[in-house]
Structure formats: C-alpha cells, structure tokens
Specification:
The chain has four helices and five strands. It is α+β, with helices and mostly antiparallel strands. It is found in: Membrane.
Length: about 150
C-alpha cells in the first residue's frame, strides 16, 4: 500500500469519527493525516509521522479554544452535584432488605436505597436525594406537608 493511501484512509476514518461524535476533536487529526498524505509524495515515513503529529498538535492547540468559544459548549456539571438535595419520585418501591428500589430525578433513573433500613418507600412517593454512593443514591422519604 502506498503511504499516501494509508494517510488518506486514516484521514477519512477520522472525519467519520468526527461526524459520529459530538466533540470537535478528531477533525484536527484528520487534517494532520491529509497533510501527511501530501508530504508522503516527497519524503519518507519519519517525516510523514512528524508532519501528522505537528499539524495535528498545532491545530489542536490553536483552534480548539476557538472552536469551544464558537460552539459555546459548557461542560455539563457532574450529575452528583446536580441531584444532591433534589426531590425525586420513587418508580420502584425502595426496600433495603430486598435490595431493590429505583427513583427518577432530572429525567434519569437511579438505583436507590433508603437512609433507614427499617423504612420501605412505596412507588409514587417523593424522596429527597441525600447522597450518591457509587451507582446508587441514598434517599430520605418526604412525608406529606414536608420532610420527615
């Protein structure tokens, strides 16, 4: 296989990866691969690799902050920060002794445990998220008219 074909294939794969992902990151490496394809007609493998790395690196360093500014994408807060203290709806009865229970908060479903092993919280009731432990939340039952 001719070197320029390898670089062109790599460039196309990276463009496709850019299209399939919400980031604006792979495109710079695709441009680096296309630059290396152009260099492959006049130089050897080492120069092609250096061209790929330099063009990609320079583009990432110089244009990524600009791309972020243009897209105005803010990093999403971690879910843990968002849901602690929020009210959730029990969508599967929470029973610590049976190890089951699900709640829905902010449109997402979390495995849930009650803050007390003696309390069973029925489906449809409201709870407050106290903390997140791994992949589940610890909740406290909200009694009618306020918190318990």
């Amino acid at each position: 296989m001719e070197p320029y074909i390898f670089w062109l294939i790599l460039g196309v794969v990276l463009v496709v990866a850019e299209i399939l992902t919400p980031t604006f990151f792979f495109f710079w490496f695709a441009l680096g691969a296309f630059a290396a394809a152009g260099v492959s007609f006049v130089s050897g493998t080492i120069v092609q690799i250096i061209t790929f790395m330099c063009v990609s690196g320079v583009l990432v360093l110089l244009t990524r902050p600009l791309a972020k500014k243009l897209t105005k994408s803010e990093p999403r807060k971690i879910h843990i920060d968002e849901i602690i203290g929020k009210e959730a709806i029990v969508i599967e009865t929470i029973d610590n002794k049976q190890g089951k229970g699900l709640v829905k908060v902010n449109g997402e479903i979390w495995r849930a445990y009650s803050d007390s092993d003696d309390v069973t919280i029925e489906q449809g009731q409201k709870v407050t998220i106290l903390k997140v432990e791994g992949a589940h939340v610890v909740v406290h039952k909200i009694e009618r008219g306020g918190e318990a």
